[in-house]
Amino acid sequence: MALHYDFADRVALITGGSQGIGAGIAAAFTQAGAAVVITARSNERLQETAAELRNDGGRVLAVPADVTDEDAVRALVDRCVQEFGRLDFAVNNATDGPMPAPLAEIPSDGFSLRIRTNINGTFYGMKHQIPAMLASGGGVIINMASVAGLRATSNLSAYVSGKAGIIGLSRSAALDYADQGVRINVIAPGPILTDHLRAAGETAQQMAAESVPLGRIGTTDDVAACVLWLCSDDASFITGVTLPVDGGQSAGTKLRQTYRPGQSMDEPADETSGAPSGPGRQGSLRSHQN
């Protein structure tokens, strides 16, 4: 990733930092010179990621923690400040919840887990990160939502609720601290190639790409670049926003083929006008899937 930010002497904290988007963000911060604290529940994977970042020259502290436990979150922030003396950036990225299913089939404890992780976890994070940032002279918080928090998706009631809650919580917190030197924004990714999507296989990846107007799946670098920009002075006048990193999904539905009123789509194109009307001239009509 070709980034040109200088975050030397700055400290970043990333929850859900052991893999996927969180690990990609941690790598981007270390490349920019920041000291990084990463956390996740799985200590083994967390330590593996920390070792990889250190091998690349990063200053990294790995602290296992469950963001649904406020005491653990408080101790995490305290450890960060004890180790590095300050906190400048925080990315609340941890997530968990049930498998996709129609609402009536979602286990109640699974729904509660999604809310505890996404909403309570983000609240606990900000509650303890903000005082640490104020003591350091200000900072930036990025909360990780999803394009699904901006518009509903079938079979993802728990996920949509959790991510939409993050957006509302972040907007309110941004207003609370806008005049105190702490900026708070939200990233809303679309389909991103993480371990989960890799494991789902080529068919799932193709379906995800077809749902994106840009025609491809996003990368963790795409997300990390936006996070670092929002944390930089280049974005110093931006707070309380939700930035979709979704290849155009939240803009609307891109039809791969349209019809002409009163004309069958099976008819050949009107060669006089040169406008395509038949199948295959603009690609096949695709359903919008996330």
Distance between the termini: 26 Å
Rounded mean pLDDT score: 90
CATH class of the largest domain: Alpha Beta
CATH homology group of the largest domain: NAD(P)-binding Rossmann-like Domain
Order of helices and strands: EHEHEHEHEHEHHHE
Question: If you consult CATH, what is the topology of the largest domain?
Answer: Rossmann fold
Order of neighbouring strands in the sheet with most strands: 3-2-1-4-5-6-7
Give a brief description.
Helix content is about 40%, strand content about 10%. The protein is α/β, with parallel strands linked by helices and about 290 residues long.
Question: SSE layout and pairings?
Answer:
Layout: E1 11-15, H1 20-31, E2 35-39, H2 43-55, E3 59-62, H3 70-84, E4 89-92, H4 108-135, E5 139-144, H5 157-177, E6 182-189, H6 195-200, H7 202-210, H8 220-231, E7 242-245
Parallel strand pairs: 1-2, 1-4, 2-3, 4-5, 5-6, 6-7
Helix pairs in contact: 1-8, 3-4, 4-5
Structure write-up:
By secondary structure, the chain is of the alpha/beta class. It folds into two domains: 11-251, 3-Layer(aba) Sandwich (Rossmann fold), CATH 3.40.50.720; 255-290, no CATH class. The protein has eight helices and seven strands. It has helices spanning 20-31, 43-55, 70-84, 108-135, 157-177, 195-200, 202-210, 220-231, and strands at 11-15, 35-39, 59-62, 89-92, 139-144, 182-189, 242-245. A seven-stranded parallel β-sheet has the order 3-2-1-4-5-6-7, sandwiched between helices. Helix 1 (20-31) links the parallel strand 1 and strand 2 (35-39). Helix 1 packs across helix 8 (220-231) and helix 3 (70-84) packs parallel to helix 4. The longest helix is centred in the middle third of the chain and has 28 residues, at 108-135.
